[in-house]
Amino acid sequence: xxxxxxxxxxxxxxxxxxxxxxxxxxxxxxxxxxxxxxxxxxxxxxxxxxxxxxxxxxxxxxxxxxxxxxxxxxxxxxxxxxxxxxxxxxxxxxxxxxxxxxxxxxxxxxxxxxxxxxxxxxxxxxxxxxxxxxxxxxxxxxxxxxxxxxxxxxxxxxxxxxxxxxxxxxxxxxxxxxxxxxxxxxxxxxxxxxxxxxxxxxxxxxxxxxxxxxxxxxxxxxxxxxxxxxxxxxxxxxxxxxxxxxxxxxxxxxxxxxxxxxxxxxxxxxxxxxxxxxxxxxxxxxxxxxxxxxxxxxxxxxxxxxxxxxxxxxxxxxxxxxxxxxxxxxxxxxxxxxxxxxxxxxxxxxxxxxxxxxxxxxxxxxxxxxxxxxxxxxxxxxxxxxxxxxxxxxxxxxxxxxxxxxxxxxx
Length: 411
Description:
single chain; alpha+beta; N Utilization Substance Protein A, Chain:P, domain 4; CATH 2.40.50.140; GMP Synthetase, Chain A, domain 3; 4-stranded mixed sheet; 17 helices; elongated
């Protein structure tokens, strides 16, 4: 096979892999040099001339003429008599350029060279994909469902890049079919071996923030700033927003007339309940807003311990806590304060650590309550039994037994 014919056959990868011809030729030279080094022990004295326009390639080996019988390195030196077979007027000390044909390398070397080229092009392709998606980390991205597995959905974008949406990165209500378009953020990109692993997430707080940027023009234009986002994916979210222009109502702009603007975001997130609140540097007011729709009677804050006690009327307590404790938990995450609720007009009894009941309640049961953030007797007694069954791995009967034990403490 002639050099030019081999180059043209290699050039087929240019169209398949979206690799420019100059880069292809650079990779080709590297591959040829590796082959020459393997065959001759060194490639320093070889010139590889590539013409990207014509796809032509020439290999020339340069050797120094030495007297007959004094050749020590056949790759670097050539005897006077052999040199004069090429050109009769060569003299000792002169350089002899000699073209190396591909047939001189041998059939097996050419096959190995081709495989090496394929590998190098794949490596180049994967590096470019890695760089491309690394720059997209934290950004919205859309891809099509290609394959549905038990623990992940495999997506393909328009260029055929594979993106993984793991089960734990999906909203609980997500249901996909092959061919569906899926939106999420590119959460992480890692090189595993030489192949990039691109992970998408729909549960990240950043996903909701980016949806606000895309769906609400004032956020996109920077007129409204999203200060913080916290979520329980598929259940509830709180978003604090601010505007430096007093003429703009940031909450009203984000929600829209009768919820028209935020409706698309809610639908995208599987009907996740989204509270949008005005950010303020006034901590008391910020916590009060974060606990909406509950109305607070009074609030006491300890900035050093990041702890807040809020007093509410009895009818407001359930609103502040929310279903499954979601509202108060998200309010705490949004503001950065641990929030305790005090019922107005009810004399507070001292709470008791759950560990103090270890003689009556087994340790693994106590650990299960602690896992969901319930460490005291009152914290458990304030919860709904059905919610506790959903949030823990405990049977309803076991939970009722625990509640009866705790109730006796306060009777």
